[in-house]
Amino acid sequence: MRCPNCDSENNDSAKFCKKCGTPLKKELSHENMINSMNNKSGKDDTTKYLIVALAIVAIVLAGAFVYIYGFGSHQSNDSQPQQIQSADDDSEPVQAESSSSSQASQASKSTPKTTSMSIRGGSFTTGGELEDKTYASIDVGSQHAGEKVILQIFYSRDGSTLNNGNMVPVTVDSSGHLEVSSADAYKYFPDFAEINLYDESGSKLLDTKSVSLSPEAGTQTF
C-alpha cells in the first residue's frame, strides 16, 4: 500500500506510513467493491419483494373483508324482501280474491239482477207554486221489486228544457214503482216529459217513453 503523502510503500496491514506517519486508508479491491455492491443490491431486492408481498396480502385481505361484510350482507338483505314479496304474492292476493268473490256472491244474492224492463205507466205530480218540483212515479211491474236501475227524465215547456236530465239511481219498490223527483226548481209547469230507463250500470237503455202533460198543478197519469 502506498502512502498518499510521500508515495512510500507500506504493508497492506499498516495503519500509518512508516516514513511520514500519514494515516493510511485501505482501498477496496475491485472484487470487494463488486461483492459489496451485490450484497447491497441483494438487500434492496429482498426489501422490494417483501414490500410487494405485503401489499398483495393487504389487497387480498381487504377484498375478502369487503366481500364478506359488504356483498354478503347486501345479498342477505336482498333475499329477505323476496321472501316477504313471495309471501304477499302467495297469500294476500288469494285472500283478497276470496274476499272479493264472497262480496260479489253476497251482492248477487241480496240484489236481483236487472233483467228486461219496460215502462208500463205512471204519474207526474206538480205542486201549486211555480218553483215546486215535479214528482214522478213510474210503474215497471212488481216482478222487478228490489232491482236497481237508473232513471232519467227531461222536462220541458213550450219546447224549452226545464232541467238537466240527471241520471238518478233508483230501486224498484215492492209495488213495482220507481219514485223520483226532479233536482231543479221550475219557472213554469212542464208540458212534456221524456223518460229514459237504463240498467244499473247506465250503459244499456231498457226503455224510453214520451209523455205530454198539462202545464198545471196536480197529478197526471199516463
TrEMBL record:
Domain Zinc-ribbon, first and last residues per copy: 3-24
Annotated region (Disordered), positions in chain: 77-125
Biased composition (Low complexity): 95-110
Compositionally biased region (Polar residues): 77-86
TM segment ranges: 49-70
UniProt keyword annotations, A-Z: Membrane, Transmembrane, Transmembrane helix
Keyword Transmembrane: yes
Alphabetized Pfam families for the sequence: Zn_Ribbon_1
InterPro entries: Zinc_ribbon_dom
Highest taxon of source: Archaea
Record protein name field: Zinc-ribbon domain-containing protein
Organism: Methanobrevibacter thaueri
Biological classification of the source: Archaea, Methanobacteriati, Methanobacteriota, Methanomada group, Methanobacteria
